[in-house]
Write a structure and sequence with these properties.
Length: about 170
């Protein structure tokens, strides 16, 4: 999917697609930068059972090997990879359909505030509609109002819920 966004009188073409094997290096770089630097993720990383770069590398392999579980969605502009997020499929018992769980949304610092993240979300919604996915769920750290505003601006609705995590197995990954 390719669309243009206008930034300061110029049209920037944003192309989004699912990560391919050739994109793994860019995906690894962007996600590792996000996971190492995002204070909100780092505040919860222990509860997630974070295995660092080994965990990320294993996850990218799983996305390529098991596309039925989800995918890495990437946005590209004239400079290359510009934004990224991770999508996993789930089944909603309330909707009786497949829904998506969204994680690790990140826009490269030099592209922020230029509409790249919004375009990433719009093209993701279009892709998921084509796959008959009926809802996207995302969690936002309680102390991250900027992320909350971003998601609300792109159509997400605030819920009166809190996300919890329970690691049930890690020994075979160490």
């Amino acid at each position: 999917m390719t669309y243009g966004i206008i930034t300061t009188g110029e049209i920037t073409v944003i192309t989004c697609r699912k990560m391919r094997a050739a994109d793994v290096s860019d995906a690894f770089d962007m996600l590792s930068s996000f996971l190492r630097a995002d204070e909100h993720y780092l505040a919860s990383s222990e509860a997630y059972g974070d295995l660092g770069m080994k965990g990320l590398n294993d996850a990218l392999d799983i996305f390529l090997e098991r596309p039925e579980l989800g995918f890495v969605w990437m946005a590209f502009d004239e400079k290359g990879a510009a934004a990224i997020c991770v999508v996993c499929y789930a089944i909603s018992t309330s909707m009786g359909s497949v829904v998506a769980k969204l994680d690790d949304v990140s826009v490269k610092e030099d592209r922020r505030g230029k509409g790249v993240g919004s375009e990433l979300m719009e093209q993701l919604k279009e892709q998921l509609r084509k796959e008959s996915v009926t809802r996207i769920d995302v969690a936002v750290h309680l102390e991250n109002p900027d992320a909350r505003r971003f998601y609300e601006k792109t159509g997400f609705i605030r819920l009166n819920e809190e996300r919890l995590s329970c690691v049930i197995q890690m020994s075979d990954k160490l």
